Amino acid sequence: MGGASSEHVIPGTIYGGVPRFPRIPPYIPLPEMPRDKDALSERTAAMEWDTTVVVHSVHWPQIDNDRRHSGWEEVEKRWTQQQGAEQEQQQPEPTQRTGVSSRPPGEESPKAMVPYPHLAIPVPGLESECDFRMRVKLNSQSASMATGDGFKKWTTFTEGEWAGRLGHGIVVSGGQDSQDLVHGKTLATQVEATHRLKTADEIPAFIECKTRGFRTGPPELLRALQDPERAASVDARLIQYRVTLSMKTSDERYAEKVNFGLWVGSCLWRGSEVIYE
User: Mean of the pLDDT values across residues 67-93?
Assistant: First the structure.
């Protein structure tokens, strides 16, 4: 450190040398400023920015900032117009009251902002063979319960039997509730049922079976099926009755077979007899 130049020593209590700084360029004299405020403002606004100007002990006049930044207003206006044009292009074209689009037939429709979902997973397969069949008989007496959107009819089962690949047995107990739904000219019946199945094993197992589905068809046929006197004369196969069926048990012999399965089938309801396949 002894060979260091004294020019790089910072003055302080230890080193008493005189600091040396680079030479400052000479001051540039300022023009005389008018005393009139209006003239002073016009002259200041017309001045261009000069980085070599050095001012010492001079009061800066007011600067017209609106004039200095007037270019941003034009930029924002163009950006707003551009955004509005893009939004108009993305909006779907309104359709006429007839349901036909006013777009010419040869012109392609605009792209949707969100692409339509496509099936990327395997389609569930259904076996065509009958895997499960159950028949139950309804009790002649039923009860009606008020709900938020109408009434539900609750009916118990008196007897029944079932059979399938997993085994066979009888229906010990259970019941179903049905509710009539009317939307416009469409009449349907929503049915939810619970069955307690018993296997025919020496040590029987008990399985809880639940079904849920809808019965739809011509209104006159549905009303006829609800009438015990007219139900026998109606062909119940003309009524569409689709159900989903699930089962659950705690018995280890059947748990793996039924607890993870879902069955989709058809049902036939005529009079007091209900058949599931």
Answer: 69
Query: Per the structure block, which two tokens stand in for 123?
Result: 């389609």
Cα–Cα dist 264/130, whole Å: 11
Tens of pLDDT, residue by residue over 203-224, are 999 999 999 999 888 888 888 8
Buried b (16+ CB within 10 A) or exposed e, 52-83: eeeeeeeeeeeeeeeeeeeeeeeeeeeeeeee
Tokens found for residue 74: 């034009």
Is residue 7 within 8 Å of 20, Cβ to Cβ? yes
Q: What is the rounded distance in angstroms from the CA atom of residue 195 to the CA atom of residue 211?
A: 8
Q: Which domains does the chain have, with CATH numbers?
A: 24-78 (no CATH), 132-276 (2.40.160.20)
- Alpha-carbon separation of residue 52 from 46, 48, 61, 258 (angstroms): 17, 12, 18, 90
- Of 168, 167, 259, the closest CA to residue 208 belongs to 259
DSSP annotation of 218 reads: -
Per the document, the length of the chain is: 277
Token readout for 70 is: 């007037």
Grouping H, G, I as helix, E, B as strand and the rest as coil, residue 276 is: strand
Alpha-carbon gap, residue 125 to 133, rounded angstroms: 19
pLDDT at position 103 is 52
d(CA 49, CA 53): 9
Spatial CB neighbours of 211, under 8 Å, sequence gap ≥ 6: 176, 191, 192, 193, 195, 243, 244, 245, 267, 276
Over residues 26-71, the pLDDT tens digits come to 555 655 666 666 665 565 555 555 555 555 555 555 555 555 555 5
Q: Which helix (H) or strand (E) holds 52?
A: none
- pTM (2 d.p.): 0.54
